[in-house]
Amino acid sequence: MPTLVGVFDQPGPVKRTAQKLQGRGFSKLEIYSPAPFLELDDALESKPSRVRMFTLIGGLTGVVTGYAMTIWMALDWPIMVAGKPFASIPPYTIIAFELTILFGGLLTLLGLLAVGKLPQLRFGTGYSPRFSGEEFGLTVEVGDRDVAEVEALLRAGEAKEVSLVDA
Amino acid sequence: MPPPPPPPPPAEAVASMLSPGARPRDSKINRDLLSVLEAPSLLYFGLLGLAILGVVQAVATLAYQTYVGLGIAGYQLPIFWGVYIVTFVFWVGIAHAGTLISAILYLFRAQWRNAINRGAEAMTVFAVLTAALFPLIHIGRIWKFYFLIPYPNQRGLWVNFKSPLLWDVFAVNTYMTISIVFFYVGLIPDLAIARDRATGWRKLLYGALSLGWQGTSRQWKAHNRTVLHLSGLATPLVLSVHSVVSWDFAVSIVPGWHATIFAPYFVAGAIFSGFAMVLTVMIPVRRIFGLEAYITDYHFENMSRFILLTSLIVGYAYASEYFIAWYSGVEAERTAFFLRAFGPYAISTWIMIICNAVLPQLLWIKRLRTNVPFLFVLAFTINIGMWFERYVIIIGSLSREYIPDTWGLYVPSPAELSILVGSFCWFSMFFLIFLKIFPVVAIAEVKELAIHEKAHGGAH
User: Fold this and answer.
1) How far apart are the first and last CA of chain B?
2) A60-86 pLDDT tens trace
3) CATH number of the domain that B426 lies in?
4) B322 in reach of chain A (CB within 8 A)
5) Residue B155 covered by a domain
6) What class does CATH assign to A2-34+133-166?
7) Residues ≥6 apart with Cβ < 8 Å to B163
8) What is the ipTM of this complex?
9) Is any Cβ of chain A less than 8 angstroms from the Cβ of B68?
């Protein structure tokens, strides 16, 4: 599949060009960015990231585990401490709180791996170490469409270099 | 092997990308910040050797203590919490600045954090790793440490979740885990940068650790979300950890401990000491590796403002403790606080007050806030002062409880001091190794600012 790679200096033009290409019916696009730019987050898909679900599920699991574990263990071998009820909510809230954060954080990490498709064993077609320098890359799988059309679009979108990769 | 980079134009660019040695086209930020990882100097090996030596002597002491028992610590009735607990609280406190910089300042969009957050996060991880050792050293019978963890056992016993010591186990372990996760997530893009430019074993290491990160928009989107959520989780966590540590004391009825102000007082003190430690560590790092263009005086000035603010809170807490001791009319509290200032531990108390509440007031003067050697010295005295703060709180209070008949004195034993010194060496050892393996400044985040600035003609 012939793939065109456009190299850019700024995130703004990358986003505009990517969206123009999507408007023309090119769906196999990839953007490479050297740094986190919030404006690029929505360049290819505007749906909110699914990482939020992982955090939510982790946090809820944590809070339930925290209370369930402490209450169950206190009732499993009931020992009266300082005249407090066996299932004493205020101190167990601290455990539940810590486990909310612990499980929430670990699941968020899992979310990063799942949503970001990590680990990845192969580089994407057209990836270059330049994109971990200070340049941006926009790769377009041209398919059976006209290469010249894509190249023109990339150049019109302020790509400073365009090259063809066959993979 | 990565697939070949885009071929034809311009030919020299491609050639320079493929040959790892000469990289004329690599960005200046990459070159500057990755240069820290280059072959270490003799001085570095000297320092690392010293640190390892310090760790070795502490391990020997610990082995001896494990063999003969806690008798070699300076414990005297009624004081059975000594230097080990003091040092535990000290290191947990140090850790807090890293999370504050990486999580709370992230949520506040304080962009000056970008240059210092990696170093501070690393400091957090190593400080918690150091702190987490101390409860184990303190219990003496190290091989029984797992009694702290609720696990199903033959005796059918569970831990007592109503005890603050158990809360501490959960708080500190959660903090350790989350700060490692936070540190690692932030490192992934930078490891990919290093991977693309490294050779040999480093390429292998960075390749494995960076998980094949390529900085696609999908990956960055997930990454941005992850950092946001982790910050949201770490912010209440960091406030909770030192609160829980303070409850180890405040939930008891020992005069000098039994105070509701303890949680905010400890959290402020933790951030105070943490920022001081960031300065203590980052000022030499910046000087040695020539990172003045990235970690500027502006960063140090901002940190010193935090130090000033938290010093005021800590000073207020000191004053308020005395006021409440007097105002409550409780004889034991009044005596405990009088003896703090004028009793056997008076020197420690005055070191604490002068280093933590008085000297930092010099930071009101802008010329001193921007004077880096002064900041280094001041940060150093704060580290000392904050260690003594915990010493005063713990030893001072335990030595003077309700009945004068039970009063006693405690002097740290050589074994405890050996392990105290070892803890600093242990921390330095990790930090020195970190400096040569991982980028000490968050490269991708520095680039974010640099690229934005390029777009706006360096306007801000």
Assistant:
1) 40
2) 999 999 999 999 999 998 988 888 899
3) 1.20.1630.10
4) no
5) no
6) alpha beta
7) none
8) 0.94
9) no
